[in-house]
Amino acid sequence: MGTSAGLSARKRSLVVVGLLVIAALVALLVAGMTGSVSLSLPEIQTAASTLLAGGDASLASTVLGLRLARAASAFVTGAMLALAGVMMQALLRNPLADPYVLGVSGGAAVGALAAMLFFSAAWMIDAAAFAGALMVALLLFVLVHRDLRGGSGRGDRSLLLLSGVVVASGCGALVTLMLSIAPDSRLRGMVFWLIGDVSGSTLRGLPWLILAGALLLSLRFARAINIMALHADAALTLGVPVARLRRGLFFCAALLTAAAVSNAGSIGFVGLIVPHACRFALGPDHRLLLPASVLVGGTFLLLADTLARTVVAPQQLPVGVITALIGVPLFLLQLHHLRRSTG
Predict the structure, then answer these.
(1) Which string of b and e fits 23-37 if b means at least 16 CB within 10 Å?
(2) What does the DSSP 8-state code read for residue 231?
(3) 112 to 37, 101, 105, 149: CA distances (angstroms)
(4) Is the link from the previous residue into 314 a cis peptide, with omega within 30 of 0?
(5) Could you give the angle at which helices 59-92 and 41-53 cross, rounded to 10 degrees?
(6) Distance of CA 44 to CAs 21, 22, 59, 93, Å?
(7) What structural domains does the chain harbor?
(8) pTM for this model (two decimals)
(9) Are 275 and 292 in contact (CB under 8 A)?
(10) Neighbouring residues of 245: CB distance < 8 A, sequence distance ≥ 6
(11) What is the pLDDT of residues 66-76, one digit of tens each?
């Protein structure tokens, strides 16, 4: 009986993940077809063949190459934010937690805006954002490393959350200072970065490696995460290495957030509403929730970016504006369903 139920759950998970992969591929196709210059499906096929064969670049193949690079960047950014959101909610045992709750994005913002203010090279901006995020993560670890060793008590979580809020406030003050002294020629780019935008991001392998490593590691400990999230007080007695698991979730979430923010700026709501929606639709089992959130988060940000560059084409909107406009009503709807279910 138990074996049959396990096979049924595994089959359901494979079907759900397969459908989400198909949805991601469809979103990628839509991103390649739509824009200031529309491409039909036959043109997409011809341009893709040209790109794969390495032949002479045509207008269609050039446009498709640029769109696919941007689409891949949007997908990996959304996937990292969604996975970091799942980890933060499991670590803090708080459904309102998101990747930015501990102030890691604030450190990235300080680094990126400082680089924009004093330098101009794009790689220096990305490197400064990544370094700023990691410095804040290390600072938080130094402040709360003793609490991460303990159980999952409410006091431990509150101290971690409070430390993150204080550090984020300090980073916000530095961001405000830099915006107030920035020259007009650089102010627009700094504001766009803060809102969140993937138009300037390039296709790089490091975010994909970070995403793959964090996903594989989290899937390995998915059962332990289930126990810690649902039975925190008894997790240690059930054989779960609570201290090691909490440290792993903290570092993985911080690394994912650092990579996502340095790749596309502070894009809000992806790491908050996507885990909520997946948990509401698929249940709390992290063996399915983790890969589903990765696929849904990537697809959501990919479609949002496609909308951002087409709704008022040829002018492009920051994708952070689109995610906020979509995320606010979705989150309120999720809260309404949550209140009805608990009532």
Answers:
(1) ebeebbeebbbbbee
(2) -
(3) 32, 19, 10, 32
(4) yes
(5) 90
(6) 20, 18, 11, 45
(7) 23-342 (1.10.3470.10)
(8) 0.88
(9) no
(10) 221, 224, 225, 228
(11) 788 889 999 99
